[in-house]
Amino acid sequence: MTQAERIAELEKALARKPRRLQLDMIGDGEIPADFALLIRSVLMQRAPDTRLITNARSSLRGGALLVWLLGDTRLIREDARLFFRKPNNQAEDESGEDWKEEAPSD
C-alpha cells in the first residue's frame, strides 16, 4: 500500500467520526518526516469526540515519534524504545557530549 493510499484510508476512517481510532505502529519504527507531518494534519482535523489511541508495537524514531505523541492515549510494547536524535545545533552545548539524565533538583 502506498503512502497516498494509507492517507486516503485514514481520511475515510476519520470521516465516519468514530468514537475512538487506534493506530497500531509496527515495523522498522521510522516514518519519513513529510509523511508524518501529513498524517498529523489529517489527525488534527478529526472530530473533537474522536479519541486517538496510538499503539507502538515496535521501537520508534524520527517522524514516528511525532505520530505516536499525537495520541490521546499512548501505548508502547514493554520492550520497545523511543529514540530521539541528538540536536544539530551544537551552539547551545559546546561540550559535544550526548544528552545526560540529570537527577531531579529539590
Oligomer: single chain
Instruction: Order the strands across the largest sheet as they lie in space.
Output: 1-3-5
**Extended strand count:** 6
Largest sheet: 3 strands, parallel
Tell me, what's the shape? globular
- The proportion of residues in beta strands is 15-25%
Number of H/I helices? 3
The radius of gyration over CA amounts to 17 Å
pLDDT averaged over residues: 86
Q: What order do the SSEs take from the amino end to the carboxyl end, as H and E? A: HEEHEEHEE
What structural class is derived from the secondary structure elements? Answer: alpha/beta
Distance between the termini: 52 Å
Low-confidence stretches: none
Range of helix content: 25-40%
Overview of the molecule:
With 106 residues, the chain is of the alpha/beta class. It has 3 helices and 6 strands; from the N terminus they run αββαββαββ. Strands 1-3-5 form a 3-stranded parallel sheet, covered by helices on one side. α1 runs parallel beside α2 (33-44). It starts with a helix and ends in a 23-residue tail after the last strand. The relative contact order is 0.17.
Name the features.
22% strand, 106 residues, 3-stranded parallel beta sheet, 3 helices, single chain, globular, alpha/beta
Write the layout of secondary structure elements.
Elements lengths: L2 H13 L4 E6 L4 E2 L1 H12 L6 E6 L3 E3 H7 L3 E4 L5 E2 L23
Parallel strand pairs: 1-3, 2-4, 3-5, 4-6
Helix pairs in contact: 1-2, 2-3
